[in-house]
Amino acid sequence: MGLYGLADSLYRNRLARQADVDRTALVFEDRRISYGELEARVRRLATGLANAGFKPEDRCAILLYNRPEYVELYYAIAHLGGVAVPLNYYLKGPEIAYALEDSGTTWLVHEPAFDAVVDSIADELSPDMRRISLTDAATDALRYEEVVADGAAGDIPVAPTAPEDLFLLQYTSGTTGLPKAAMHSHGNILFNALTQVAEFAMTEDDVHLVLPALCWGAGFHDYTVATWWRGGTVVLRPSGGFSGEEFCGKVEQHGISIVLLVPSVLRLVLEGDSIERHDMSSLRLILCGGEHVPIEAIEDLQRRLPNAQFLQGYGLSEFPTIMTYLDGEHAITKRGSAGRASMSATVRVVDEHGADTPPGEPGQIICRSPAVTHGYLGREDATGTTLVDGWLHTGDRGWVDEDGFLYIAGRVKDMIISGGLNVYPAEIERVLGAHPAVKEAAVVGVPHERYSEVGRAIVVVDDLDAVDQDELEALCRERLANFKVPREWEIRVEPLPRTTSGKVQKFLLVPAHDRR
Fold first, then answer.
1. What's the predicted TM-score (pTM) here?
2. Which of 189, 195, 321, 416 would staple 423 via disulfide (CB 3.0–4.6 Å)?
3. In which band, very low, low, confident or very high, does the pLDDT at 81 lie, cut at 50, 70 and 90?
């Protein structure tokens, strides 16, 4: 394969119609941005960054809500041969500082809303860190629009980029409690996009509503890149509160044809009669992922939107495209299944020796694909256990039936999926364990009506009067993103149950009526 990177997919637009630069690429609130305008902005930003000292392989963290500047940055960083480090805007100061140091980031672009939190961790940042803010409020920071304006006079050439060159560091927490950066190359990202184009028969007429945060794979490089590579239109929703009425209104207003929803958002869409009060005829494909979708919700969706195809996908940060998918018909006949392998992946279920398990027998789910991460930055041990002979070991347990449908039986990794977000108990336990009154702590997942699963913290103390739930919640909110804070609490003096080898028996900590 020749030199061809992410920026080329926008500039050359090889799969799309070449001539119409006035075609709408991006809709954001009341703004409509054409392909010509988007490319011009990206080129000016890239040139302005280069003028400010940005070099190939520099790492740039992005701490923004969903907005056009986010996608401009992705493509400008790719243009310069740099590495993007998207940060979840739910993160707190210590989490941000850790990611910046761990990734070796030397550039940080952030929202005005994060000026104060970035100022608060300034002493922990590298002295080489360059900050770019969207407003004039931040101290010692370049102004984003000034950087763009500075690039108007020139047009720096696109850096030569090979498919294996690193482009993205996608942080995903690990079972040790310390986040890890999954490394994705230009080739990974472009293969993801090309797979979506083929898998979902995308055309230049598709209008894709992007609801997920652009810091997630599903927000940017799964579908936004694919839509633009094909010449379609992306309608980007600002970050924040969401309602089913707003969703249905956007479908009618913009002629939305494709959308990705997490199950908790799908439930909001199905509430009330918004679907019936809006013209939803343009919607041809509803993708759902992040957690299991109840059969009742699928049946309700198919009854009310009979012309829209429903697909439920299974993937993970290390393999951000769809590994398997399940259509609406098989969601009923293959109840509980995660579906069959997509065209982008080879999926197997293996025993502890790496041999394929027979139908019905559980094992670990592994996969192989050009979309698989190149490993974890600076984590050779974790990379070595996750990537074995070219196969990604997902850490999920499952089994296949006689027809090749995958069923997920549980997780090898200790993880909670809450509202489509991965929550690792070890990270919370580490924070709780730092409190002087806490002897030990464990966090388990319990069912929740809206979020499917939430965290339940069991905290062991010597003295029940030494600390209360409010104090522990405040500690977690200070150091962790809000979605990681446990929703249920138990503070006790009784030790945690353990095996003879000393391992905590977490299944005994889940209330009996909540055990699956």
1. 0.82
2. 416
3. very high
